[in-house]
Amino acid sequence: MPVLSKLTSSALLAIVAGSDTTAAVLSNIFYYLIREPEYFVRLRDELDALFRPWEPNESIDINSLSACPFLNAVVWVVTSTIIPQFIDNNILFAQE
C-alpha cells in the first residue's frame, strides 16, 4: 500500500472516529448555552470582541481560540461533566 494511501485511510479513520465525540460535545455545549442564556451572551460577547464578525477576513485558529478563557471554560466544564455510557453497543452521554 503506498504511503499516501495509508495516510489517507488513517486520516479518514481519525475523522470518522472523532465525529461522534465531537457531535456529542457540541450538542451538550449548545444544550447548556440554551439553558443558561446569560452564559450564551457572555460567550458571544467574548467571541465578538476577539473576532469582530463584521470583519470577515479575520482568521480563527488554535492560537486565537486559546485567548478565549470563557470559551475554554465552557468546553472544559461540558467535557468534564459528560460521562459516556455504553448500553446495547450504543454510546449514551449522562451528566455526573
Number of strands: 2
- CA-CA gap between termini: 45 Å
Strand content: 5-15%
Q: Topology as H/E string?
A: HHHHEE
Structural class: alpha+beta
The 3D shape can be described as flat
The largest beta-sheet arranges its strands as 1-2
Main beta sheet: strand number and arrangement? 2 strands, antiparallel
Layout of secondary structure:
Blueprint (H helix, E strand, L loop, with lengths): L2 H33 L1 H15 L10 H4 L3 H13 E6 L2 E6 L1
Antiparallel strand pairs: 1-2
Helix pairs in contact: 1-4
3D structure, described in words:
With 96 residues, the chain is of the alpha+beta class. The protein has one domain. It has 4 helices and 2 strands. Strands 1-2 form a two-stranded antiparallel ribbon. Helix 1 packs across helix 4. The radius of gyration is 17 Å and the shape is flat. The N and C termini lie far apart (45 Å).
In short:
This protein is of the alpha+beta class and 96 residues long. It contains 4 helices and 2 strands, in the order H-H-H-H-E-E.
